[in-house]
Amino acid sequence: MKFPESLKGQKTLVLGGGISGNSALNLLITIGADPILCDRNPPSSNSISYLSDSTEPNSLPQISLIIKSPGILPDHPILLFAKEKGIPVFSEIDLGNNFFHGRMIGITGTDGKSTTTALTAHLLKKDFPDLKEGGNLGIPFTSFCKEPISLAVLELSSYQLDDSSPLRLNTSVFLNLAPDHLERHKTMENYFRAKLKIADLQNKNHSLIVSQKIKDRILNSEKFQCKLLTFGRIPEADAFLDENSLKIRTAKFEYDLSQFFLPGTHNRENLAASILAAEAIGGKPESIQDQIPLFKGLPHRFQIAGEKNGFSFINDSKSTNLHSMLAGMSTWKKREETCLILGGRPKKEDPKPLYDFLIQGIGCVILIGEGRQVWEEDIGKLIGEKLFAVESLKDAFAILEEGKTKLPENSGETFQIHLKNGTQISSVVFSPACASFDQYKNFEERGNHFLSLVESFLKNIQ
């Protein structure tokens, strides 16, 4: 479906507020459209036309098109009405793409897409100093799409891609695929199809960067003319990660990873994908190499939240599914001395990988939120008294506080934590493996709450 050449004066319904919806609304106002916000919450300004999202579709005013926020489900009554009446529906990304004149890199995958988006933008900053990064990463595309910049690096979720027309990106990255969001996509095939919309498969000038598993799936099911580039630990990969020498080799350069800050094979594979994307869009290998040691990661993704005399707190609130949590924890040492805080609203996933991980050894698990209803019984059978089940993060810290022992000044350490089950722990990792919506607006709010609790926990320790 082709986007209209002009929206000036056109009555446009923005279905769903939030960050992307409000950004789309502001752009429509600036270009002279006649937008209406349709959301459960009214806007802060009385000057904006507003309808509740529970409005009967038949009572809607005559509208030219709908801009849909990614969180709105496809079976929303207004969307069903639009389909019946032939009213065009576009995404916020479609809207931004209509006004953007620079080049674009799009990045998707079940896990690692935020880190890889930020990392790709970071690697290119020397060669494209005016670039902007955004999309699902937190900065809506429509908030900067009219700026005269040369390059946009966008994180694109399956929801955003599913809603969008062909985006015709210059370079795209499809990192990985694991069960997630099946409450919306229903099947893994549907989920794969949504993700694959990031690729401009029939464009010979388009570069699609994928893992070997994604490549195999494409080769078995798709006809394509684009450049298909792979990253990984297979020597034949276009970006070969050599874990022994800590090098990534491409056709253009051999990159040194010895000063790369982020731990773990999964992060080095993300870096390989980012390097290929940066090279494909025109980044100079020497500039990319210079940037590698300077990247320090993202907030809420295996972020050091606090340290004291060898005791550490890790904030991995961005872990919203099991695949993400297990990827992060695969690099973690001293698991027998680790308190893992899990929980929130579990996704529709097979829990077996979680149970297999816990059987290998863990100091303790504190299970919070709605996760208790789904996992408590089975985890209890596996690890017994090493499991604590409580309502909230605050309750989890009460358990830690109860086990805290202050040590004499000449002991070399300031405190230890001995839990009721007798376990002494040296680290706390908050990696929920769940959505945050049972108790928080988003994973950022959840992560910030964890950070504040860590600060309070440590402040009285000299």
Tell me how many strands there are: 23
Secondary structural class:
alpha/beta
Shape: globular
| Largest sheet, spatial ordering of strands | 7-8-6-9-10-11-12-13-14
Strand content: 15-25%
Considering DSSP H and I runs of 4 or more, what fraction of the residues is helical? 25-40%
Beginning-to-end CA distance, first to last residue: 63 Å
Integer average pLDDT: 92
Radius of gyration: 24 Å
Q: Your description of this structure?
A:
It contains 15 helices and 23 strands. The chain is α/β, with parallel strands linked by helices and 462 residues long. It is globular and about 70 Å long.
Short description:
The chain is α/β, with parallel strands linked by helices and 462 residues long.
Task: Jot down its keywords.
single chain, 462 residues, nine-stranded mixed beta sheet, six-stranded mixed beta sheet, globular
